[in-house]
Amino acid sequence: MNIYVLVKRTFDTEEKIVLNGGAIQEDGAEFIINPYDEYAIEEAIQVRDAQGGEVTVVTIGGEDAEKQLRTALAMGADKAVLINTEDDVEDLDQYSVAHILSEYLKDKDADLILGGNVAIDGGSGQVGPRLAELLGINYVTTITNLEIDSDTVKIVRDVEGDSEVIETSLPLLVTAQQGLNEPRYPSLPGIMKAKKKPLEELELDDLDIDEDDVEAKTETVEIFLPAEKEAGRVLQGELKDQVKELVQLLHTEAKVI
Amino acid sequence: MNFELTKEQRMIRDMVRDFAKAEIEPYARELDETHSFRKESFDKMGELGLLGIPFPEEYGGAGGDIVSYALAVEEIGRACGGTGLSYAAAVSLGATPFYNFGTEEQKQEFLVPMAQGKTLGAFGLTEPNAGSDAGGTRTRAYIDGDEWVINGEKCWITNAEYSRQVVVTAVTGQNEKGRNIITAIIVPTNTPGVTIRSNYQKMGVRASNTCEIILENVRVPRENVLGDEKKGFGQFLNTLDGGRISIAALSVGIAQAAFEKALAYSKERTQFGQSISKFQGISFKLSDMAMEIELARNMVLKAAWLKDNGKPFKKEAAFAKLFASEMGFRTCNKAIQIHGGYGYMAEYDVERHLRDIKLMEIGEGTSEIQRVVISRLLGC
Ligand SMILES: Cc1cc2nc3c(=O)[nH]c(=O)nc-3n(C[C@H](O)[C@H](O)[C@H](O)COP(=O)(O)OP(=O)(O)OC[C@H]3O[C@@H](n4cnc5c(N)ncnc54)[C@H](O)[C@@H]3O)c2cc1C
Ligand SMILES: Cc1cc2nc3c(=O)[nH]c(=O)nc-3n(C[C@H](O)[C@H](O)[C@H](O)COP(=O)(O)OP(=O)(O)OC[C@H]3O[C@@H](n4cnc5c(N)ncnc54)[C@H](O)[C@@H]3O)c2cc1C
Predict the structure, then answer these.
(1) With 90 as the cut, is the pLDDT of residue A76 above it?
(2) Closest chain B CA to residue A189
(3) Which 3 state secondary structure label does DSSP give A143?
(4) Distance from CA of B285 to the nearest CA of A (A)
(5) Predicted TM-score (pTM) of this structure
(6) Looking at the predicted structure, is the pLDDT value of residue B68 above 80?
(7) d(Cα B341, Cα B339) in Å, to the nearest integer?
(8) β-strand pairing of B274-275 with B270-271
(9) How far apart are the C-alpha atoms of B146 and A115, rounded to whole Å?
């Protein structure tokens, strides 16, 4: 089985995020593998261990993303590819990323491509479906279970808390939802072995891509942090009056009714 | 000069940090309250290869370096001081003497299972009447036929109940100057005559297993000598030099945990209409804590780097251990102070950090003994 996993380096949203001049300050921020992509990596390793084959992790980014690729290799992936766009393009959006990935993957005969359901930074959830569309293969998003029996694939997907069971066939792209599995920690021997595993670095030129063709179709106009949560208010008095006051406040202050 | 960790070192630190946060920290308070050792944590550490970081692959290890190992000790200690002590003792005191002094057969037989995390190991030096002055060891061993016969008593031996074997030091004769010859002997813990008990009521590091070992006519094969029969004393001094790096790293981890809690608390706590972190009396304490932790960490990493590069590190290891443990005590004490009355309560964890860190000024050579070591190296 020829398996590819799409991996993104993101900042850790559980750590403090500082904005500086309309951009997230990278100095001092912690960077991690997008958590949903970790489920994808784990699933890919499990599928390979059960069915044989090879897992290649692919990322688009800069030099710094090598650490996340090495971590995926340490978890058990076989090969890594860094498509380095640092010198070529400034802003990438889901259109650009899907386009670059499809150029890279079009002649790779992938049986299974896994990605995260969303990246916790951009949060578009579009890269997977767009890529499948460009490659002309089936896709299923937000999966929580995957069973492969030769060419038939049985999938459980999460639909806003409910489950949907789907049958489809390879080649296939899926995006991982929380609950798909429990990602392993990279073991010490894994970390030491990852050093020796192949990590290929490509630039847009190597993929015959013209920078203009992958220019972002969207523009980020503004970035801001959510407003500080204000202290809650406890209403006083008779229950009946409290209800009245609440309804009134929802009208006039919160303006939700 | 280069102060950057390598990619592998960073990956190891990050992995251990994630692991310790999810698998060790949640149990820390309960283990402290119940005085219990959590074997499951060590099984998991073993599976991840943490117990074999600094040993080569041929001996079941990961082929990592001492810097990586020190980073791992810091992260585990930050999550739970007691678990950190048992981890540091398992690698530095349990396994390392086999790696440094064992024969090939001893390495295969004893080091491999320890590096793979299938058993812990223990190092039994201290006795009721021989602590700092290990030359005063009273445990004796003599040869009878093809066997050593050992009699004596060891106290406060870390991990002994969870170890397949303990290395004990015993007096086996006198040299020309009339000084005791001390030999290190491998004693499988299931040997008849070995009694191991752990019913100490400890101030801190309660998640660590601490044991009393009684040896009554214990017979082990003659080839169970670890290293040179006549040089057991020098060998354990060498073992302790390496162990000091890990106790220093553990001190940094515990201090870091206390500092983070104090910093977060000081920002949340309001008195006199503002967060207490705005008062210089508090913010200066936090500045000192952050600075001292970083200084100690740098000294730990330098000592580890020297050892990794085959350079002398005895003095630097003593510097690191002495400074890190004493700064750790100051830091944990300040963390309690910053928490006010809450800091005195178990629920806020900082009082546990203080109880845990106190051991670092005592174990593997007291602060006074570190000063003795340093002053000797200065030629005093
Ligand atoms: C939780 C725990 C775990 C331990 N684990 C192990 C283990 O795994 N293996 C092991 O072998 N031991 C272990 N120990 C023992 C530890 O190493 C000793 O406690 C330590 O070496 C000090 O010895 P002591 O307690 O006998 O104190 P003493 O040597 O009696 O010291 C008492 C005081 O006198 C001071 N002192 C002694 N000599 C001098 C001097 N020359 N100059 C100035 N001051 C001096 C000391 O610094 C100290 O302040 C452990 C102890 C504890 C509490
Ligand atoms: C075992 C125990 C028994 C007690 N018994 C009693 C009792 O019988 N009756 C009773 O009323 N209380 C009692 N207390 C409460 C005790 O008096 C308070 O804990 C103490 O006054 C500190 O208040 P706090 O804990 O709220 O800390 P905080 O006032 O929140 O102080 C937190 C930290 O901020 C510092 N800080 C605060 N303000 C400033 C400032 N302006 N400038 C610089 N630093 C500042 C403090 O020094 C401290 O380091 C008891 C507490 C304990 C732990």
Answers:
(1) yes
(2) B62
(3) strand
(4) 23
(5) 0.91
(6) yes
(7) 6
(8) antiparallel
(9) 64
